[in-house]
Specification:
2 domains; 7-stranded mixed sheet; 6-stranded mixed sheet; 16% strand; binds zinc ion
């Protein structure tokens, strides 16, 4: 198992047996995923499938481009797939003139909101859906911007960044000439017209989609996979247990609390990847708006250091060779706080052979865990 990235800016982990290689979530751009795989000595073309936990952007950002580039199937639950397609697809096709008018209006609105809110909101926008150049199905970032703007109903599935950034702001990072109050250039006009005239250029098209259901095991190659439901504010979020070659690996991130039915899945694991998202005090005193703080702390938000530690101390069987703390918040946590609280919980169960503690990182891959 190799954690390529973990955190609210993107999640992706490679799980491999002797013969099967599976990417769990693709929350970075395709380009960045490829770069990180190569950095850890993995050949992207050897991937057999992509498996998706839920539709939040930090888990799916690069899924379509990566799947298309490699020609591999995406395994996902049907509700999650539908939510992702809905989020990616314009609700109503409009004319170019209507689009331009909307862009002008939104540019006027954003001129005010930028003054009101300074750089933070701009940064949130750039962090979510704005990396158009990396999403290889389009020739220019501007047609991605157009695609987003063609969505007239704001019924997209939520993402951590979107929620944190205040909903509508995720278009901010996209460079579109309407944003700066000038006429769109020829390239931009052409890109928009292309989207309007060629519906078959569908950003949600995938080489193959395989549906699974939470609770129903299935196989990819020689890897047996058991998806289990997690309490999180997505449409049908899951965690996974993987078994192959006598090794058992569990991934449980993006969960507001640790329900007892998940305890069962996390038994007898050789590797346990567990969310340790935030320090409750840092979150409470931190920069997020209160509504976002409430969301993160809720029963469908993210697991705190304390909640992860409580699980490790009271309900975990102590049998894993590696415990990987994951999805650490950059704003509301410190790696040392997460580590100390997990170490305290594991106390005398840590040894050379058991409960080796690792912290997954946002900006670089972890070294491969080989069993
Ligand atoms: Zn997440
Ligand atoms: Zn999530």
């Amino acid at each position: 198992m190799t954690v390529l990235a973990s955190g609210s800016k993107g999640n992706s982990t490679l799980v491999a047996s002797a013969t099967t290689r599976i990417l769990v979530d693709a929350g970075l751009s395709c380009r960045e995923l490829m770069k990180r795989m190569k950095a850890v000595g993995e050949e992207p073309s050897a991937l057999d499938a992509i498996l998706i936990t839920h539709e939040h952007q930090d888990h799916v950002q690069g899924v379509a481009v990566t799947a298309r580039k490699l020609g591999i199937p995406v395994y996902v639950t049907e509700p999650t797939h539908r939510a992702w397609v809905r989020w990616m697809t314009p609700q109503k096709r409009i004319t170019y003139a209507e689009w331009l008018e909307q862009r002008r209006a939104s540019a006027q609105r954003s001129a005010f909101s930028v003054q009101d809110n300074g750089g933070r909101r701009t940064e949130q926008g750039t962090g979510s859906r704005a990396q158009g150049a990396d999403n290889g199905w389009s020739s220019a970032a501007s047609d991605q911007a157009a695609n987003r703007e063609l969505t007239t109903k704001d019924e997209r599935a939520g993402s951590e960044q979107q929620t944190a950034g205040g909903g509508e702001d995720f278009t901010r990072g996209a460079r579109c000439s309407a944003d700066v109050g000038v006429e769109p250039d020829e390239e931009e006009k052409a890109a928009v017209e292309e989207i309007l005239s060629e519906p078959e250029k569908d950003p949600t098209s995938l080489p193959a989609v395989e549906y699974f259901r939470s609770g129903n095991g299935f196989r990819i190659g020689d890897v047996a996979i058991t998806p289990f439901t997690t309490p999180h504010d997505a449409i049908d979020p899951v965690g996974f247990v993987f078994e192959a070659d006598g090794v058992r690996i569990a991934i449980a991130t993006d969960l507001g609390y640790m329900p007892s039915n998940i305890h069962v899945h996390l038994r007898r694991c050789d590797v346990l990847m567990l969310e340790s998202n935030h320090d409750v005090d840092m979150l409470r005193d931190g920069p997020y708006p209160w509504s976002v703080k409430q969301r993160v702390m809720s029963r469908v938000g993210h697991l705190s250091n304390d909640a992860a530690a409580e699980f490790l101390a009271k309900s975990y069987d102590g049998g894993a060779a590696y415990v990987v703390l994951a999805h650490l918040s950059e704003n509301n946590n410190l790696p040392e706080l997460a580590r100390i609280s997990a170490e305290r919980a594991l106390r005398d169960r840590m040894s050379l052979l058991a409960n080796h503690l690792l912290l997954a990182e946002q900006d670089r891959p972890l070294e491969a865990i080989v069993l």
